[in-house]
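Troubleshooting: if your tokenizer reports a length mismatch, compare against these two reference records.
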Amino acid sequence: RMTTVAQCCVQHDWDEDVRAGHGSFWVSVRATAEAPTRHGAIGVRGTELSCDFDANVAAIGANLQITTPLAPGTAFCFVRPRNTYKVHPRLLAFDVCPRDELAVGAGTDGRLRVVSLANTAISRPLEGHLGDVNTCKFFPSGEVVLSGGADLTLRIWSALDGSCPRVLKGHTAAIFGTAIVDRGRNVLSCGRDGTVRLWDCGTGACIRSVVEHPAPVSAIALAQLDAISPDTASVDRDADAREAGTQGRAVVCCARDGALLSADARAARAIHFQATWGSALNCLTMTSESVVAAGAADGSLVSWDLRQGREPLSVVCASTAAALDAQRAGAMTFVGYEDGVCSAVRQGDSTTVVSLTGPNLDSVVGVVARGHHLYTACADGAVRQYEVPARGG
């Protein structure tokens, strides 16, 4: 099913006026893509908020809540950042370690920077890439970082001392995405050359190309093979001695030609599922054991059940800007968009749109969930931390 969600936007720094107890900030509402946009202002006088068009507005804790007859059946919840960190001057990618203590950011200058979230003045540069660094991820230990970029290399770094003990070479075009297999003896990467490659971190060797696709592969995730393809057994062969954690695992990936694929991690080009969307797919996240949601260049969030046919399970259209990253957090899937919006849609008897505010039209290039915290990375160089709303407001 396809759902087009009403859009409501507020001024990026609305919370400053709310905390000050005076002032005003702009707001706009559009019920559908064809409907005109209603622009207005919300005035703040002490704890009272009022809108100059028909709307109910309230500030509750860190949230701003808006309902209006202009968008019937939809509630809008805007969440202000709990903390803001400057991690890298021009962010392209970032991650937060599993213990929620360190962050790593990467950008256009070939450098990564590891910072302490307790004190961002404590940082460590990771230098060695040339050009854009498009992806970076912590290993489960939180002490090692994997990165990949436009220089065709993957690099493994110590987050503790900044050393780079291993450089992985084999891609023939820029690297876009990575995934850590199990505890990190093996990793996966994808890129502009259309391949998804499995690597041995110990030797730096490429074990195999799991996927070879005619278009650039944007992003990858891991799933349990028996959950998405119960009638298909994992390839029965002796595992390469360099493999660990690939038995029974599937690689799910999306591509710039709109393709979504899943394949056995232990085999070369063993495609189990393939579907297509009419726009480039830029990002994906597993929302359950068998369901994947992919963010598209046309702004759609498209979900497929990998156990079923090629028709999407659902399509949510909450923006017309390109989706750049997606992350499941609790019961909601947050999507970062090119126009600076990061939002999730919760549907039931009514619809709630939760938006994470702070960016001023700068692209949201990354979204990471860690416990009760959600982090976004923005092209303005800031990483913002939010408290995840338990039920969308």
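Reference record two:
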Amino acid sequence: QDCLRNCVTLSADMDFFDPHFHVWDVSEGTASGHDASTLFAQGGNPVYGAAQYEASVATGLPQELRHVGGVFLEAVSVCHTSMKGTDPAYVEHCKAEAKWAHGQLSASEKSYSFVFTAPLESESFGAVLDEYAKLDGFRGIRQIVNKDPNWPRNGGPDLLAMAEWVKGLGVLASKGFSFDLQLNPRQFSRFAEIYATVPDMTVVINHLGCPTISDLTEKPEVYFDGLKALAKFPNCYIKLSMLCYTAGDWDTNEVVTSAVKRVIDIFGAGRCMFASNYPPDLKDAWPSERLFPAFLKLVDSHDAKTKALLFGGSARRAYRC
């Protein structure tokens, strides 16, 4: 409750606490754990570090918003696609990213927390968590599970159908950490079944649940009914981000803007959060002078308290900041 009160700013100067962004190094011989074959050099620069990220946000940020920090999200769960999650070498890449990103962002004057990755199905998962717990600001794990359509590392069995993966989620919950959930709408119902085994866990759904435009137009009941099932869990949150995955010009697409507003209604503003998803959204032609005014327009009918939740308060609550 104190966190929420501190985040509510009734003046024109409102905090933006970004709950989903990446930093990476895809230079040759990088020690950051990243993979240039699946990631990219933003603006031709192989290093997208803390300084580059903060400049990306600041360049066109509307005067109503003040960037105060955020939550780093891992990117290695799309990297090294030839390696299985149980491969010790892959786990080392996960740990390398955590160390590199923590070093990048801990030197900033802004406030950052961290969501790293490790394969839940790995026998070493619990030990890796113990290592991460020694890093200030560590809050949880993300492992991308999108299946059909597959994301780069998900061409094999559906992780949500693996007993070892479900066991790993239980380990994560038992240690008090959160899980960032990136999946497809067709997987919502299966994850709701798994969630029922750890109902008190904080789960943050990434990127609106990754709907395609056809998910919203041809199978809307699968999408919205699935979200309603997940929203029944009181510690389930959702990020309003990567909307350009659904439609490149999402801000002028009534299907997408209406879906975002309906998602806010389903979860409530106290469990929804806007996020930059930089640098991917930056690469997809959504610089800050375009992205943040579009976010503000989506919620222009809401009061200042609600906006403060969507731009920072909900994220700080979810990630215990």
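Descriptive notes for reference record two:
- The radius of gyration is 18 Å.
- The first strand starts at residue 14 and ends at 21.
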